[in-house]
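Backbone-to-sequence.
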């Protein structure tokens, strides 16, 4: 199958900069599927079933911080396995026979209180009952106790941020919201198979914002239009814009209870995503300044540091790191294009602030 050029480039960007333990999605259009496998915990020797996602894709687009969404199961949800007995967590490779856990860390994990698993989650539970956000938190703790590299920890935090974004973007079915979404189709740019779907949705958000600014909606429509816009921005982690909109909607309280509760959850997920982004930025920066990152991965690490700083509101630092990415030898063309565009965005924010 011929892979459209733009999408191929995006896949390459996402692929090159994944850590060695990560899986990389193959061709677009390939439906991902979940595979169960038996694995042994290197800490407590419990044999348990884990789940991985095989044959994934990025058909639903790639956010500018490299979070790729698949049609079908989302691979990022299934990268981390967790022992249902002691809570030890990590990538599949961390569980293989070669995955040695130092004795002091083993003892720490086995000593009560263990890594905290949700009440009722036992070796008899279905692995899918454990929230991916919990798995990442546990893996981060295990990596910290094992004193794993800053780069490895940065990726765990970044992925944990993506999980918060994805889990935090959902809203319950609502008739008013469905009507606005239907109406919004008028502004949706016509996507072609080679378009990055994340960018198509961001263009839609821009068009809706322009229509709002142009006074196109009645005061009865406005809350639902504002919510649609906030949801689109939240979905792509543009939280500096989404958060104040959600705060306004929480304060004005114009929706049924179920929707209002979901908006609060969406708002809370922004704080959790930000916490992981701040930690990821610290880890990437330490890794870069300590020359811990290979030459091949340096441009992407600099770019991600720009993107993380932009997303958490540090525009000046963001510009500095985009510049570093652009000046890196061997920077990928797609990454260069994105770094240029994102740099301009952050530079505009820097002037505003
Ligand atoms: Zn275990």
């Amino acid at each position: 199958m011929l892979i459209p050029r733009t999408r191929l480039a995006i896949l390459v960007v996402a692929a090159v900069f994944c850590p060695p333990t990560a899986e990389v999605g193959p061709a677009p259009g390939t439906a991902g599927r979940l595979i169960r496998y038996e694995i042994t915990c290197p800490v407590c020797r419990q044999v348990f079933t884990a789940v991985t996602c095989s044959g994934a894709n990025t058909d639903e687009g790639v956010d500018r911080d490299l979070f790729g969404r698949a049609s079908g199961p989302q691979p990022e949800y299934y990268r981390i396995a967790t022992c249902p007995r002691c809570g030890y967590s990590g990538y599949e490779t961390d569980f293989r026979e070669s995955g040695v856990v130092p004795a002091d860390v083993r003892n720490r994990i086995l000593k009560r209180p263990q890594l905290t698993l949700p009440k009722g989650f036992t070796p008899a539970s279905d692995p899918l009952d454990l929230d991916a956000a919990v798995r990442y938190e546990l893996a981060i703790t295990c990596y910290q106790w094992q004193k794993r590299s800053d780069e490895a920890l940065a990726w765990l935090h970044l992925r944990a941020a993506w999980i918060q974004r994805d889990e935090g973007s959902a809203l319950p079915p609502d008739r008013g919201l469905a009507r606005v979404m239907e109406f919004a189709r008028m502004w949706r740019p016509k996507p072609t198979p080679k378009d990055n779907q994340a960018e198509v949705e961001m263009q839609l958000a821009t068009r809706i914002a322009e229509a709002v600014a142009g006074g196109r909606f009645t005061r009865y429509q406005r809350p639902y239009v504002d919510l649609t816009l906030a949801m689109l921005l939240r979905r792509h982690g543009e939280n500096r814009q989404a958060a104040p909109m959600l705060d306004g909607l929480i304060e004005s309280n114009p929706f049924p209870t179920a929707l209002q509760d979901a908006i609060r959850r969406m708002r809370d997920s922004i704080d959790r995503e930000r916490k992981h982004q701040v930690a990821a930025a610290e880890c990437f920066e330490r890794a870069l300044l300590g020359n811990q990152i290979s030459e091949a991965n340096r441009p992407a690490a600099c770019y991600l540091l720009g993107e993380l700083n932009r997303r958490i509101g540090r525009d000046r630092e963001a510009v500095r790191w985009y510049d570093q990415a652009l000046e890196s030898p061997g920077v990928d063309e797609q990454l260069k294009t994105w770094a240029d565009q994102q740099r301009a965005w952050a530079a505009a924010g820097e002037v505003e602030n």
